Amino acid sequence: MLTSEEKLEIVWKHFLKVMNTGDDSAIHAECTEAGFLLLLESLNHDEPHADQWRRWSEAWSKWGPVRWESITSLVAYGKLGPKNKSASINFALTPQGWKFDYLSAAQ
User: Residue 69 contacts by C-beta under 8 Å, 6 or more apart in sequence?
Assistant: First the structure.
């Protein structure tokens, strides 16, 4: 039986694979509305979305596993990257399963 952390790590890796496709609609399907809007607002609109999605996926995949700090019945919160410069990540549980909801810049 997988732990909650192990299940969420599978969700995170799946999300990165979907981002690597560069397909806006597929990525949108793996996000909450707020999460997808946050990602869209972060895009450089002078460059194709697909290129940026792939670059982000590749970069984030190198940050190592998520250190899940809090998992409730509705939200999972974790840290990603080195402890001295980590990014915060949230997934929200929806009727369709866990969806990307938020990622802060590494601090």
Answer: 77, 78, 79
